[in-house]
């Protein structure tokens, strides 16, 4: 099976590497707006062939869109315009509702499967691609009732070939939950990094004293603005909702410290510890 991957950075490049390694793809074609990224992806063995859109779309049995979510808004309809009824298109974007609405009435809508593999790091570009990035991770298939059975089956087969665990959600539900468990984490990471950089002017001390707890939270602040601003733009309402709640919780902690009410603070931490039941 020939697979064309549009966007050969961390997500697309790791996908190409996995599909080449596990034999799912007989050939992986790469398409990217950056010639430098295409050259790097080919040199790193993430793709077999660097192609333009016309060649990639025409030759592939399966087209996977791993571009930033703002680019997907224009890219997905253009791809669906060009495919035949034996081809399948999958996107890997982190937001879904706006994108799916964009192609709701497209005549080739059934050939499209909306998917969100919950995997990634704070790094970007082909050199950030990781062997095994998707292993044992969750992949959310979204609004599957709009996809043709054979297209959905092919998408499931691809993700399962990489060792992913599958679940399904509606697009609005997906975007809401991602705001709670993913998008707010990145905002918190950006905020923490800015706080420390503002208050701690001695960079050597940050380097020397930063514990694993700080590093694991602040590492998200190294994520690309090119990736995250489109996500925040598309999922603005849900992100605002969870951000308001997060600010409320932080204000509560601040108030308890001002009042020296450490007994209530203790209870708040114990309540937070309940997350252990959900996250190991």
Q: Secondary-structure blueprint of this entry?
A:
Elements: E1 2-6, H1 10-21, E2 27-31, H2 35-43, E3 49-50, H3 53-59, E4 62-65, H4 69-82, E5 88-91, H5 97-102, E6 112-117, E7 138-142, H6 149-161, E8 165-169, H7 171-199, H8 203-209, H9 212-218, H10 225-234, H11 236-259, H12 262-272
Parallel strand pairs: 1-2, 1-4, 2-3, 4-5, 5-6, 7-8
Antiparallel strand pairs: 6-7
Helix pairs in contact: 7-11, 11-12
Can you offer a commentary on this structure?
This protein is of the alpha/beta class and about 280 residues long. Helix content is about 55%, strand content about 15%. The chain has helices spanning about 10-20, 35-45, 55-60, 70-80, 95-100, 150-160, 170-200, 205-210, 210-220, 225-235, 235-260, 260-270; strands spanning about 1-5, 25-30, 50, 60-65, 90, 110-115, 140, 165-170. It has an eight-stranded mixed β-sheet, sandwiched between helices. Strand 4 (about 60-65), helix 4 (about 70-80) and strand 5 form a beta-alpha-beta unit. Helix 11 (about 235-260) packs antiparallel against helix 12. It is globular. The two termini are about 40 Å apart.
Order of helices and strands: EHEHEHEHEHEEHEHHHHHH
- How much of the residues is beta strand, in percent? 5-15%
Number of strands: 8
The side-by-side strand order for the widest beta sheet comes to: 3-2-1-4-5-6-7-8
Which features characterize this protein?
single chain; 280 residues; alpha/beta; 12 helices
Task: Describe the structure concisely for a colleague.
By secondary structure, this protein is of the alpha/beta class. It has helices at residues 10-21, 35-43, 53-59, 69-82, 97-102, 149-161, 171-199, 203-209, 212-218, 225-234, 236-259, 262-272, and strands at 2-6, 27-31, 49-50, 62-65, 88-91, 112-117, 138-142, 165-169.
């Amino acid at each position: 099976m020939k697979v064309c991957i549009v966007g050969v950075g961390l997500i697309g490049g790791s996908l190409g590497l996995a599909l080449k390694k596990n034999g799912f793809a007989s050939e992986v074609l790469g398409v990217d707006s950056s010639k430098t990224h295409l050259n790097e992806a080919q040199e790193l063995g993430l793709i077999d062939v660097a192609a333009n859109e016309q060649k990639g779309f025409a030759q592939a049995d399966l087209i996977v869109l791993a571009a930033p979510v703002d680019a997907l808004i224009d890219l997905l309809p253009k791809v669906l315009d060009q495919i035949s009824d034996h081809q399948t298109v999958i996107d890997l974007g982190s937001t879904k509702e706006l994108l799916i609405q964009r192609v709701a009435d497209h005549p080739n809508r059934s050939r499209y499967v909306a998917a969100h593999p919950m995997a990634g790091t704070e790094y970007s570009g082909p050199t950030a691609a990781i062997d095994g990035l998707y292993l044992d991770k969750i992949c959310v298939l979204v609004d599957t009732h709009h996809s043709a059975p054979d297209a959905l089956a092919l998408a499931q087969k691809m993700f399962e070939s990489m060792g992913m665990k599958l679940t399904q959600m509606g697009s609005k539900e997906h975007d809401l939950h991602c705001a709670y468990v993913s998008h707010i984490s990145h905002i918190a990471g950006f905020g923490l990094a800015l706080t420390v950089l503002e208050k701690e002017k001695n960079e050597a001390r940050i380097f020397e004293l930063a514990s694993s707890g700080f590093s694991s939270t602040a590492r998200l602040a190294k994520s690309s603005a090119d990736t995250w601003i489109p996500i925040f733009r598309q999922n603005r309402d849900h992100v605002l909702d969870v951000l308001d709640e997060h600010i409320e919780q932080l204000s509560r902690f601040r108030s308890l410290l001002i009042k020296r009410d450490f007994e209530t603070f203790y209870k708040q931490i114990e309540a937070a510890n309940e997350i252990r039941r959900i996250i190991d």
